[in-house]
Amino acid sequence: MDRAAIIGVGTTKIEKSKVGETFADMAWEAVNKALSDAGMTIDDIDNVVTTSSDFWDGRTISCMAVGDASGAAHKNVSCVEGDGTYGAFYGMTRSLSGSYKTTLVTGHSKGSQSVSSLITNSSFDPIYERALGMDMVTACAMQARSYMHRTKTTPEQLAGVSVKNHGNALKNPLAQLPMKITIKDVLESEMIADPLHKLDCSPVSDGCAAVIIAHESVAANFKQKPVWIKGVSFCADSFFFGDRDLSRAKALTEAAKKAYEMAGIKDPKKEIDVVELYDAFTYQELMWLEEMGLADDAMAGKLLEKGEFNMDGRLPVNASGGLLSGHPVIAAGLYSMAAVVRQIRGDAGGFQVKKAKTGLVHGVNGLGGQSHCVFILDKDK
Amino acid sequence: MTQTENIIIESGDAVQPFSYSVGMHGSKFFTELRDNRRFMAVKCPKCKKVYIPPRGVCGECFVEMKDWVEVGPQGVIGTFTILRFAFIDPETGAQKPVPYGYGFIKFDGADTLFQHYISVEDETKIKIGARVEPVFSKDRKGTIRDIEYFKVID
Predict the structure, then answer these.
(1) What's the pTM?
(2) How confident is the model at residue A79 (pLDDT cuts 50, 70, 90)?
(3) Is the ipTM of this complex over 0.95?
(4) Which residues of chain A does B103 touch, with a Cβ-Cβ cutoff of 8 Å?
(5) Cys-Cys link to A259, which of A28, A225, A374, B75 (CB 3.0-4.6 A)?
(6) Domains of chain B: which residue ranges?
(7) Chain A window 124-143: which residues touch B at a Cβ cutoff of 8 Å?
(8) CA B93 to CA A204: how far, in whole Å?
């Protein structure tokens, strides 16, 4: 099979409110950063995929509104509504299709412009679920309880994820919430929805990220060292939350397994050096690590306490600060991807980890992990 | 010092009215709930899984489901949360009074979880596995609000 590589990344600073910027303004910044990172001009890009959500953007066909600022004029532009990793997956397939060679993928959102709980409420079933007020935080609190009940993971262990990721963000100038906090601070922060405290939850954020994905025949033609896509898969679970075992994520286990196989990874615990995953809530980092086989079942909390997932630990997880330190939905997965690309290239700056040959990027689409996307990126082709 | 101001366009009171079809499965479910206070689920002819809320297709088997099964009205708490932050009620636009309980109920005879409010009168009784029963609205209209909430009966 032909190969594709990521040859440029660009991300805006994640902020609580970019009140001075439109969606297109954010896209313009991220796209130009990615082009400059790659050593390309917009003429070197032969097609564009934008990623956005109509509800979050407060308009329909939201993807088209950022076309001009994304250099889509006179090009084939298409869109994905979902996490940025899904946009990247589509972008990759276009670069491998034979019709295109260089795909620019963007993802944007501004949580600051709407009422988040009403937006996430509207993603639930309008007949049986929406009228009761189910939203992202409520659903994930119930998932957290279910996971903690099965695995005996403690509130202190959840809090440890928040302490680590906010601490990591101190080294990332693009993060929204760099904070030196303690487990006590997390446990004493306001209880939002049992068992989730305020500091167990990611913030409302604005931001835009862009990545450029090239076919192997042109990947080395530009300035940047290509970072190779060795494996990728996504897998979906049932739409209704109540149909799933909420303490598990079988769709993630399946997606990870397929991505490992494609990348030739036999022992992910040993072969993966660095991970950026979807930590919209603290418990998710631990749960996803177990479901991807990067920690033994029900053990992630204990391994976290031992420092295994620290920036200088056995397997650094969310060294960038993760989504807990800034969570522009939709763009999230592309931020994670950009962070792993920078790690593998060795230019992650303050949050660079020691060994970063092979990295894993994880994105989620749908509430509580209805669908999961896993990318394996590598320094070597 | 330079004065700055934020110029922002508000959406105002604009609304997007929408009518959602509930389908034949939803019609049966809500009619039975309203008229007979019964919970109707559907059973997959292939994997035998009993689904509530009912829907036309078993996603696992990709087959149509037409076999109706009554479940509940009692069940156990599958998982739950107690909301302590006042979110906005999507139906009224007002802030909801806190705290309130929200849970997934596993009805006796069902294989999936059904979400609704849980009364938080005595928080110590709310546990995964606790037995619950529904409290119905007096004035039932054929919506999910025909159930007021579930209460722990242990």
Answers:
(1) 0.95
(2) very high
(3) no
(4) 142
(5) A374
(6) 23-152
(7) 125-135, 137-138, 141-143
(8) 20
